[in-house]
Amino acid sequence: MAPDSRLLTPGSTPRLWRMTRLQFDPVRQRPVLLYPEGAVLLNDTGAAILELCNGTNTVEGIVRILNERYQADVSSDVTEYLSLMAERELIRAG
Amino acid sequence: MPADIPTTLLAELTHRCPLHCPYCSNPLDLIRAESEIATEDWKRVFTQARQLGVLQLGLSGGEPLLRKDLEELAEHARREGLYTTLVTSGLGLTRARAERLKEVGLEHIQISIQDSDPEVAERIAGVRSVKHKQAAASIVRELGFAFTINVVLHRANLDRIGALIDLAADLGADRIELANTQYYGWGLQNRAALMPTREQVERSREIAERAIQRYRGRMQITYVLPDYYELYPKACYGGWGKLYLVVTPNGMVLPCHGATGITTLRFDDVRSRSLEWIWQESEAFRAFRGDSWMKEPCRSCPRKATDFGGCRCQAFALTGDAANTDPVCTLSPLRRVVDNALTEPALDNPDYSYRTLAAEPQRG
Hints:
A: 3-stranded antiparallel beta sheet; 35% helix; B: 9-stranded mixed beta sheet; 13% strand
């Protein structure tokens, strides 16, 4: 059985799937994640999380950065969002 | 009903093609080279599409590599912010052209494979093509494009679905799209030769489900079953005029690539109207938008929000009225036209009616 690349741990370093592109859509006035045959419309928080998925930041590190930025404990929201995106294979565990 | 924001444009740049696949999704009446719209027309269409909200662009055909301006069009699309897929047979994808496409920002290439058995593959394509496709696949992989293999399935190759999936993995694909033949246009003309048996469909479904698990994290597999064997129709692109539009080689704008088969509709031309006007106002796009056009059993059916009455092109092709329920639906009073097709005697040594631009198509 091949390792399941969706599995995220606090120490994994997620990165966006190489087939995706994150950009701002001026028509819908929101960020979008584009990939073959599909698109996810994002909110600003979602985009902020995905921008940190660069293959260097750990899940823990991303949580720390965003807790600080939003001056609140967003840990569970962030990890839940990352798991969801990993489940859809739009981010890959590093 | 007001129009939504579309997400996807399929640009059929040309109907010229080196392949002759008998299930081609192009219409029977193929557009000739001299009627194709100009580079500047396509660029204007891409700009207007992005302004309208389109995010995904398919550069398709026929064989889009037969357009000499393909690189220029891909460059323009990227500059506008579209995520672009080249949908190709692979024939004509030289290293030089692929490198140029990479340079101008093309992201994703989709190459068709006819079968994992080379002999059958070339019989389906009607031309020697397997070696060219292998060469194209290795170029796509080496240059680091996002890479999808797509396969149209039918009776002659469905039993090799497992081998096809393995072949796509060997070729280095990130994704494989396996879709059973859709029966309008050329597919309908060749239906008796292409229709798989129920046993084939069931077996293929099991093989695909196991492969999806096995390849998870390495290669994405999507599998589209043949709707004739389903109880309910497929939801065409989220409903008519909802998310999707097609521009034909001669500049006609369609809500679906099969829509020219609905001979009761007329379509507008990108050279005389803006894409925005056509999307929002034109008769063809408004004809089946929303659900006010529906008749029974769709009108009072709770599933109408799920499948939108099914495929308008199929309803017209099989029942003569595009506002009828898609006859694939088990609730359709005309379901027998689909069931009859499933009990037609199978042609085991199929004499395909090949897609060709040269000869006048025979109307079945």
